Please model this.
Amino acid sequence: MEIVVLRLGHRLERDKRVTTHIGLVSRALGAQGLLLAAEDKGVERSITRVAKRWGGEFFVKTGVRWRDELRNWQKAGGKVCHLTMYGANLHEVIDEIREAAEDVRTPILVVVGAEKVPFEVYETADWNIAIGNQPHSEIAALAIFLDHLQRGQELTARFEHAELEIVPSRRGKEVVVKEEE
Amino acid sequence: MEIVVLRLGHRLERDKRVTTHIGLVSRALGAQGLLLAAEDKGVERSITRVAKRWGGEFFVKTGVRWRDELRNWQKAGGKVCHLTMYGANLHEVIDEIREAAEDVRTPILVVVGAEKVPFEVYETADWNIAIGNQPHSEIAALAIFLDHLQRGQELTARFEHAELEIVPSRRGKEVVVKEEE
Model:
């Protein structure tokens, strides 16, 4: 499944941690990359540093123009999923989205906004999806969406070429540090 | 199902937004309250303001002592679930936790830490649970945990006495503003 996350409305300083969380959640829960509609090299560094140590392939691209990204994504046959508390309930739409996403020719762009999202995003998106219709957190919404889209399988995925790997444990902390090959 | 969230390691200013997200996620995804092991009236106000407008019952209690809370919770027959990337994989343990939680005599305390969590928490918890063994976000971990615990049913819950209610919509924004009764 090809999944990329587009983060809109990132404000320098104020959104640093929230956008870093969005990047780390994207990577940990099976997306291949993050597009950030702002320039913030600090956020990019934080995420790529984690990706290098913990393995797998994950890209971060900053300074993208969201309108171009949406248009090009759809032109190439991909689908756009916009997460918003005003959208259709996840349970209503997840089956159609998953069906689309299971076709390798249909990459999924997940759009995660901040406070004000331009109405054009609502109109352009193939799906506007609410992870519950209550105000909470774009980080939480992204996590639950990725988890439902992949039926929870992302939680046991292995990451290639990791320097660090955790051994799951009911009590305590166990980390394997790997030698460079 | 009785669920309360305990937030550890909150640092003033730095964690304001992340802890507010944790409170809002707790409320939106079916928990009854948030215990905060720090004094932060700003965070408390932000969360209770949302709870008042969007309905339901949700409490926030600041300045709690985590050691006392864990001890009293377990003494009263409740179970403690600590979310940590070092823990057992969610899929391995969620069935036993749900079984415990479905008994009304077993309230669930979900512990969400920040960077450094005292080892005593790992030892005291009934379960240490990893939402994937990768670094990402305590907000995301909490969201996925609450969602799996309640089998996604929390996403369609109604909130009583709301001033505002969203009508789910595939395109656009529809909000119902209710008169005071």
Summary: Residues 41-54 of chain A form the longest helix (14 residues). The mean pLDDT of chain A is 96.
